[in-house]
């Protein structure tokens, strides 16, 4: 038997929808609310997607929205992490904040995929990135694209390209990729049924050179799935031309904040004169907050 939500829960939901702009003060649904009701996504992400179509910044917002929906792709590096990995990770840092750091990672990862000079799996290891999360972002981004195109056909140009094999003479290669993917999935399912006991020598090799060699020699199922579902060059083209000016950066910040509000904090005006561990932030209802130690 379904129970009626508590009055506190109802009041909290109404306040949230009013803050989001989905209903007005009289608790009547707004134009934004009607559109949000048609999108099968979290209302916060839905508002961001809608705003992205208005300001013609769909691609970067799709990437950011997908990134907000999964765990961070950046590994938590230990204090004794290799200096090279720490240095490589900093290449993605943006003074505009985490959403733009994510966009830098996405652009760089697509470039590695497109150029094919290095395994993206090896590249991610060298840069302290968990590639599984990037693949999850790619899948979610594709889903968000489909939702937007269903709501407003053609708003995401090129998203109907299913896979990176656009020419007829690539049909054979596409079939080969599918066959490999099918075999690898079967092998994975079979290996999961077999119990394996690690020997002492194998335990010592984990994380070492032998592990890297094994990873580079094996077929990456996730990579095959990604290539079959996406046109990498088209994704890269859309991503690289998405942000062209300071105006675009400001609008992206505004779109993200409009979706998250009031779940956002503003840095204290005296922060530039403080140490990193002493920075203070203020929200609508709370003051002098500190950032999380992994932010």
Automatic annotation (TrEMBL):
Keyword Hydrolase: yes
MF annotations from Gene Ontology: ATP binding; helicase activity; hydrolase activity; RNA binding
Domain Helicase-associated: 12-103
Organism annotation: Jimgerdemannia flammicorona
Keywords: ATP-binding, Helicase, Hydrolase, Nucleotide-binding
Region (Disordered): 158-178
Domain of life: Eukaryota
InterPro entries: HA2_WH, Helicase-assoc_dom, P-loop_NTPase
Protein name as it appears in the record: Helicase associated domain-containing protein
Keyword Nucleotide-binding: yes
Basic and acidic residues bias: start-end ranges: 166-178
